[in-house]
Amino acid sequence: MRGDSRRITKLIEDIAAISETPQPSGVTRLAYTPLEREAHAVFAGWMTDLGLSVRTDPVGNTIAERRGTAGGRAIGTGSHLDSVPCGGRFDGIAGVVAAAEVARLVVEQDLEHDHPLRFVVFAGEEGARFGQACIGSKAAGGMWTPKALAGVRDSDGVSLADAMRALDFDPTEVELATWNRDEWAGFLELHVEQGAVLEAHGTSIGVVDLISGSTRFELTVTGRASHTGSTPMSLRADALCAAAELVLLCEEIATDPRHRGTRCTVGKLDVRPGSITTIPGQVSLAVDVRDVDSSRQRDTANEVVSRGRDICLRRDVELTARLLSDASPVVLPVWLRDISSTVCKELDVTYRVMYSGASHDSQMVGHVIPAGMIFVPSRAGLSHVPQEWSSSVDIALGVEVLTRSLIALDAQLTRLGR
Ligand code: GLV
Ligand code: MN
Ligand code: MN
């Protein structure tokens, strides 16, 4: 049941070719764009070629199904096909290609399973465009309303609802995309680790126990723009100088011993008017706080804002804060983890139980059905950059662990009469 590493390389390349940016600059296939839909269509083609039925739900999640011998609730696997700007070829894609390989294995080997197997590509997992991660899987998790979709905008001011409409999805139907326990029995996602733990320990598989939450917000500092030559240093209200202190404040709070494990990052600065001869009058900072501890996550966000206010008061500039998104960390069910750990032991494959620092679709579907994750190694731990890389041989082994885990889950559900 090992995946075919050469086929995996080919499928990953097929998807990588669908990009706004040329290869050396990395892959750009943003959430809710025609390119993302093109990638979903390629996946749908793989599935129909295998004789599976395929549908697209109201928010653009693509779901293929192989019927089970007994029917009942479905077992799912999959991930996402969108990327960050100038990102890698593996984040999300490895999990979708792994799902496609599982589908190929079960069809070609005519493997029997009682429950339906579903192969899923979630829409819009990356928060890069809308500041909101996991848009499609949040819909599956029943976490959106049409009003909320209208309230989220990208940096061009396009609302998520309008971006959906432009692709022929109807945002008023978002609630119809919700998964429920009567229809779904569980979900298992393969993903590249995006960190360096597996590689550093020479371990083949990560079995995920916790997924970090994230709180994202925009800080806007408003000072006074004026001439860089004629304004004395003592008479300035330089928004960028205050913003620089805010960036360092984020680092200071996250590295404080009280916050072991918190990550706090300013990944985007918008400096206005952005001229070498004008003192910056306004700066917006995008802040991303991640933690597996929900109180520490929210306390960090609150502390950045409250201590940031003191900095801005001292510098005589104004500070406003706008929440972009807030997702809690989740604990994945131990019984589902045990299935994959047992498979690794049986195959004599090295594994370790570990947390995920990144967000994932499983985090969102985990709100409504049991979800699990397995990681495969990432070279040098790099992710969200063009250098992101995982070996197809490692992914092929991950496919075997995934396939056997899904089959074991199917058998366990049957045994328990579920
Ligand atoms: C998703 O890749 C994230 O930003 O964690
Ligand atoms: Mn991902
Ligand atoms: Mn990502």
How are the SSEs placed, and which strands pair?
Blueprint: H1 5-16, H2 34-49, E1 53-56, E2 62-66, E3 74-80, H3 93-108, E4 117-122, H4 135-140, H5 146-151, H6 160-166, E5 184-192, H7 197-201, E6 205-211, E7 213-222, H8 239-255, E8 263-272, E9 282-291, H9 294-314, E10 318-327, E11 330-331, H10 334-347, E12 351-356, H11 361-365, E13 371-376, H12 392-415
Parallel strand pairs: 3-4, 3-5, 5-13, 6-12
Antiparallel strand pairs: 1-2, 2-4, 6-11, 6-13, 7-9, 7-10, 8-9
The structure holds glyoxylic acid and manganese (II) ion (2 copies).
Give the ordered list of helices and strands.
Answer: HHEEEHEHHHEHEEHEEHEEHEHEH
Largest sheet data:
9 strands, mixed
Number of strands: 13
The separation of the N and C termini measures 25 Å
* Share in helix: 25-40%
What characteristic shape results from the CA principal axes?
elongated
The ligands found in this model are: glyoxylic acid, manganese (II) ion
Contiguous uncertain segments of 5+ residues: none
Beta-strand residue percentage: 15-25%
Radius of gyration: 23 Å
